[in-house]
Amino acid sequence: MFKEGDYIVILSFKPHNTRCAKKNFIFKQRMNNSAIRPCVDLKGGTTNGNDCLRFDKSDILIDWRYATEKEIEFYDSQNKPCDATEIDSLAVELSKIKKEINENI
Questions:
Q1: Which of 40, 56, 60, 95 is positioned for an S-S bond with 14, CB 3.0–4.6 A?
Q2: Nearest alpha carbon to residue 14 among 51, 58, 61
Q3: What DSSP state is assigned to residue 67?
Q4: Do residues 38 and 27 lie in contact, with contact meaning Cβ atoms separated by under 8 Å?
Q5: What span, in angstroms and rounded, lies between the C-alpha atoms of 8 and 103?
Q6: pLDDT digit string (tens) for 3-45?
């Protein structure tokens, strides 16, 4: 069961007519439930969920994992579902910006 406060990364799901999840996106669980009930969904909603995205992978959700600390920090900085694959590219960009600032001081 997903627990309130869990950070979940969707790894894969079966083709389905759903717009509630994206591969590699991080979601924060708002309540204990056997299905994902995100604090904020992809459209910004705060009260929905999707019964086909199940903890036991019995429906369209094929694979998921708990988020890493780095992914949790990234989610919290956005305060909405976000693509975990963007973390490293953002870190590289921040590093470039810091380097430019230091060179211009």
A1: 60
A2: 61
A3: P
A4: yes
A5: 39
A6: 999 999 999 888 776 677 889 999 999 999 998 999 998 888 8
Beta strand ranges found along the chain (DSSP E): 7-13, 25-28, 35-36, 50-54, 61-66, 82-83
- Joined tokens for residue 70: 């780095």
Q: Which residues does 13 contact at the CB level (< 8 Å), separation at least 6?
A: 21, 23, 53, 60, 61, 62
Handedness of CA 18, 24, 28, 31 (dihedral sign): positive
- DSSP-based three-state secondary structure for 5: coil
- How far apart are the C-alpha atoms of 76 and 2, rounded to whole Å? 18
Q: Name the pairing type of β-strands 7-13 and 25-28.
A: antiparallel
The alpha-helical segments, DSSP class H, found in the chain are 69-78, 86-103
The number of beta carbons lying within 10 Å of the beta carbon of residue 51 is 12
